[in-house]
Amino acid sequence: MGRWPGGTQERLQEAAIELFTERGYERTTVAEIATRAGLTERTFYNHFADKREVLFPGQDSFIAKVREAVGAAPAEQSPLDAVNAAFIAGSDWFDQRREAAQRRRHILDAHTDLREREWAKLAALGEAITAALRTRGIPDPAATLTAAVSVTAYQLAAARWLADPQYGTLGHHLHTSFEDLHRTARSW
Amino acid sequence: MGRWPGGTQERLQEAAIELFTERGYERTTVAEIATRAGLTERTFYNHFADKREVLFPGQDSFIAKVREAVGAAPAEQSPLDAVNAAFIAGSDWFDQRREAAQRRRHILDAHTDLREREWAKLAALGEAITAALRTRGIPDPAATLTAAVSVTAYQLAAARWLADPQYGTLGHHLHTSFEDLHRTARSW
DNA sequence: TACGGTGATTGCAGAACCTGTCATCACCGT
DNA sequence: ACGGTGATGACAGGTTCTGCAATCACCGTA
Q: Looking at the keywords, is Protein biosynthesis present (chains A, B) (predicted)?
């Protein structure tokens, strides 16, 4: 058992994705993940709150970044544009991990448990954006509605990004998704 | 142990809400819920997929009703109005259960686990509406965006309905929430 | 080199969740 | 009286997750 080789979380994440794709999420135990990473089950739980969380690395810091970017946006920018810009500013990270995102999505789509966690993360993102918009002086309910619709546009962009055979950037798809949103909102 | 006294699910739900408010969600075991209802733990799991599900009675049938109502809306109605009308059509059920909804909300707010499940239900509602809108000929991404923003407006209305000291109906709050949505969308 | 502090890792026990399997029971029609 | 049906119960077992305390490697300091 190599002890302290560093990168513990990353090793656990890779081991988890490997095993999930090999045997499926439910047929993989936390103990197996830890063993493949050269660690123990207990250590897994020192790094991740539960079994699902290993599939959502960096989500919390992404949320924090978006919140910060929305708060720091120029005052003359519309709320929706501010959120859009914040998403685009953080999109490089994803473009560099397209393949990992693909595998992750396949696992997520196959298990309701995991999609539940994903929705929870998206809800947290929405609440963070709502809070940031409020500090920009946007009152409720506009803040809540704008945040929610932004998250939906973001989801849409992410889906297109993963499905795009042309390998367009996430930023590009965010741009078109928010254009679609403007167009659709005009019909409401 | 009264066997087959009828209303098994309802008894389990009431026992669960009682115990959750008395000791809290985490400090209540499924076995305790079942015992208070005069049943066994195994029977609980014959009626509910897991411990959380006991707090979401009728959600699935509500989703089915909304899907149906959206599909059956008059053709001249705009997509957003169709969803709004579908919500209002199913709002009586909630108005008759305001107090239970209050207690349920207090329990939900205190536990991330349960809010996660709630988000999952809302996501399922959104997907059902998306599907219904597509059968009405609304193409993507308009169907997805319209459904998502409708669900958000619904959440907003439900929150106001529970907080309203005047005890206004859910239908009333749905009306004003969708008006807010129209107003906000004009700024996008 | 010796020593102690710090933080990560581990072992162990145990509660609770959830499932599979099969037996048992009440009801109902014949 | 009899058999079918469906809900309930008993039991075993795996898995998830937590609390607690011990162990280990590293690092600065004397």
A: no
DSSP A138: P
The Cα B182–Cα A137 span in angstroms is 20
- Which top CATH class is A8-53? mainly alpha
Full pLDDT tens readout for chain A, 188 residues: 335 567 899 999 999 999 999 999 999 999 999 999 999 999 999 999 999 999 999 999 999 999 999 999 999 999 999 999 999 999 999 999 999 999 999 999 999 999 999 999 999 999 999 999 999 999 999 999 999 999 999 999 999 999 999 999 999 999 999 999 999 999 99
> Residue A125 burial by CB count (10 A; 0-12/13-18/19+): exposed, middle or buried?
buried
Alpha-carbon A88 to chain mean position:
13
How close is the nearest chain A Cα to the Cα of B117, in Å?
7
Residues 43-72 of A with CB under 7 A from strand D: 45, 49-52
Domain residues of chain B, as ranges? Answer: 8-53, 56-185
Chain B contact set for A149 (CB, 8 A): 145, 148-149, 152, 188
